[in-house]
Structure formats: C-alpha cells, structure tokens
Amino acid sequence: MAQLKTIYEQLRSAQIDEQLINAFQKDSDIVYTGIIQYLGTSDFVMLTYNDYGIQDGEVYLKISAIKEIETDSYDLASMKDRISFDEMHDLVNNPSFDMPIKMSDSLYDRIIKTLYEQQRVALMITFENGRLKYNEGLIKAVWQDGLSFLNLSKFDFSKQKMTTIPAEDLRGIEFGGTELQLVQETLTMIKPENHIEDVTITDSDQFREIIRQRQLDQAYLIIDTDDERKYFYVGQVIAANPNEFVMMVVDMNGRFGGYVWIRYDDIKRLLLDGDYLSLIQRFVHLNKAAGHFALPVLNAERAFDDADNILIHILYQSIKFRKLIRFELADKENFAAFPTDLNLATGLLTVELLDVDESTESPVKQIGIETIREMAFDYFKAFLLENQVD
C-alpha cells in the first residue's frame, strides 16, 4: 500500500507540474486557490486567484499552518473553466509582486525584507488566542524573532495601532493584491487626522427623500439592509421613485459590482459620510483613471427611467435577454434564477432555478412579485453563470 504524501511532497509535485491547487488552512475556513511560485522546506508562496478566476495577488504560508492540499476536485475544475474563460476574454490580470528570490534565500526573510524596505501594504495572518486574525498595514521594524506592525483601519482612520508580531505567531502574509495595492496608493488619506465621523440615517421616514437627493447629487452612499446579512451595499443611486430604487454597486476594490433593485422597507440605515465611504470613492477615482473600473464584458452604464415600474422593467428585460437575477424575498429566502415568465394579472413570476437536484426538487419556481425585497443583477458572477461557466 502506497504511503500518503506529506504536505510538502504534495506541494513539490504541484509545483513541478504547475498544478492549480486549493490550500486549506488549519483554524480557518478561508481557502487559497492558486499556483505555487516558490517552495521552501517549511513555507511556500502562491500566486492566488479570486473567486472569479482572475489572478489577484500572492500569499506566503507556513506549511505547518496547512491542513490539506487539494489538487483534483469539482471546485478546481470549475476554477480552471473560469480562468480559461477570463483569459479568452482578455480580462484584467494584475502584475505579480516584484520580488526576485534566489534558491538560497529564506522565503520568510525575503518577503519580510521586501515588504519592510519598500513599505508595502500587506495582510498579516496570525494565530492568537486559538484563532486566526487578519491585520492590514505596514511593517515598521524587523528583528530576528518578530516584527512591529502598524495596523490600519479602513473603517476608522483614527484607529491606527502599533503591534508586535512574534515570528512564531505568523501563519501567513497576503501581498500584491488589488485591494492592498489600492490601500498603498491611498496611504496619505488613511491617517488619524483625516478621520470623518459617520453620518448615519436610521429614520425610515427620511429614506425616500435622502435617496432621491443622493441620486440628483450623484453622491455615493452605503445601504445596510434590514436583516442579519454581514454585507452591505456601496454605490450610487441611478433611478428612484416613491416605491423603489436602483443602485449601481461598487465592490470592496472600488470597482463596478453590478446593480441592485431595492424596496425602501428593505433598508435598515443609510450611511452618507465616513472614512470607509470616502476611501471607496477614492478607490473608484483611481480605478476610473487607470481604466480598471469595470471589466470589459460588463455594462456599467445602464440607465433606468424613474417614472417606470422599475421592478417590472427589470424582470421583462431579464426574461427577454435571459439574464440571471439574485432574489431576496420578504421571508429572507434568497436564490439566483433566470426569470422565464411574468403574469401581471396574478402577480406571479416564474423562474428557473440553478443547481437543483431535479430528482427531489423542481427547477421551476413561482414567486409573488410583491414578496421581492431585492434583486441583484449584471454582476460578474452572474455573467459567468449566464455563459455557463460555473
């Protein structure tokens, strides 16, 4: 019986064969997908891919922090399809981090030295009190068994904090990715003296008026929805009437992230100013100046008529052009589906669900349009699925 390969042996084989791998960490659900760039006896560096199959940054990991290496799976096969699709459509790839390494170099020493000497923003992964912690910032001093790290907060510029990280607590380092590069370009902004107090509106009676004014001013805002989700929407209102509105969404990198249709009773609060909002707007400005705001396969310039029943318009357009929508319903159910028919007499929308086991569940579902709280559409994941790239 063949002996199971060690993690190092799996990494070595994957490096030689230039295999795409998934690296599963101990004590974390975060999985890194990529190709091994450098391999040492106790650590390695991967060129990593984001969820959409676009190469985005690198990660240094200690082998002792790895629980499992996967080289063949359904997820990896799907990722290879996304990578091939992206390459075929000439989608933006970020240049790899400039860090020439000699065979005799210690990976840890070389990466720490490069990040320190060039004062490059990095994300440090440490193991503290039984769990992994992720801190973004700059290395300010280095010694044999540790380093000093200035932790930056994108949400509150006043909360800069100098910490000491023992080398033995360090599990990994992310560097060179899009978001880290944008933070690098905005370091002069992320300072305590530039802190802005959040301006938040929670009075639902004001939501319609403020949304309308933000649309007229073409001003950015953050919308926090009235549920337990851990994400929020950042963007510009591009259409609004007393019943509904549409927002052009930007992601955490200040890049186009599709559109979302929202009912006013879906809102928990509006954030009109603050550190994070101002930083994302700066990211947007930098991306537009560099021509990186929207992927070339996406339409970031859609227009909607305020006077229309916008919900009905979006659904009819989706049916006509077979466009995917992610629905959020009043009962908190959410799913992605292709609308196929709309009966205005009954108010019923028929949709075709994705990833349904047809032996136990019908791929066809009917929903009352009055139960729809949100619809997200024209984002990149939807584009991939519309083109049958899982």
Which terms would index this structure?
SH3 type barrels, 2 domains, alpha+beta, 390 residues, globular, eleven-stranded antiparallel sheet, 37% strand, 23% helix, ten-stranded antiparallel sheet
Give the topology, please.
Blueprint: H1 7-16, E1 21-25, E2 31-39, E3 43-49, E4 55-62, E5 66-70, H2 74-88, H3 107-117, E6 122-128, E7 131-143, E8 146-151, E9 161-166, E10 170-175, H4 178-185, E11 199-201, H5 207-217, E12 220-225, E13 233-241, E14 244-250, E15 256-263, E16 267-273, H6 275-290, H7 310-321, E17 325-329, E18 334-343, E19 348-353, E20 364-368, E21 372-377, H8 380-386
Number of helices: 8
SSE succession? HEEEEEHHEEEEEHEHEEEEEHHEEEEEH
Major sheet description: 11 strands, antiparallel
CATH architecture designation of the largest domain: Roll
Give me the Rg, rounded: 23 Å
The outline comes out as globular
CATH class term of the largest domain: Mainly Beta
Instruction: Note the beta-strand portion.
Output: 35-45%
Q: Measure the end-to-end span.
A: 36 Å
The CATH topology of the largest domain, please?
A: SH3 type barrels
Give the domain tally. Answer: 2
Structural class: alpha+beta
Task: Please mark out the parts with pLDDT under 50 across 5 or more consecutive residues, or reply none.
Answer: none
